[in-house]
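U., I forgot to send this yesterday:
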Amino acid sequence: MKKTKILGWSALLLIFVAAFAMGFKVATEHNSDKGYEVGDMAADFSLKNVDGTMVSLSDFDRAKGFLVIFTCNTCPYAQAYEDRIIALDAKYKPQGVPVIAINPNNPNAKPGDSFAKMKERAAKKGFTFPYLLDEGQKVYPQYGATRTPHVFLLEKTASGNMVKYIGAIDDNYQDASQVDEKFVENAVNAMLAGNEINPKTTKAIGCGIQ
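Result:
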């Protein structure tokens, strides 16, 4: 009888340990699906630019950081921000923080976001920054991007590219002249000055990624 009880308790203990391990695994996988949070280190990538070259963050030896912006051709919000993204690149690339634009949409679902259409859009708007296709949609889930546009400010450190800000470019997509809070500019200025970024996150406003 005693041996049976011991075996019974052992079986229950094994079940508990297995359930705990399974729950931990599910929780870990779920958390990884959320993408990066402020303070995380962003993995590098290699994506095709509209000029046909492959671009990685490691290509920018002298960069102090990056404005990784998930955007596209077809979203009205993304279109409304294109001139402001060009202006951000013009302002901060000379200071060591270039824009790296990534189109996360599946061209099969959004033909207007095909690579050929990306090349046309970049030429029409005169993009001064890489405009990369997230072929196979592998990069945007790592970042946790959900909208176009969605900004991730990275700071290059000895340990890697640290996420410093996530969210919107500013607080008025409709009219640049009516913007009250320039979230990205404030974040980059604070990062370059070695000051605390506030806010570190905002809600990205735009079209859902498809």
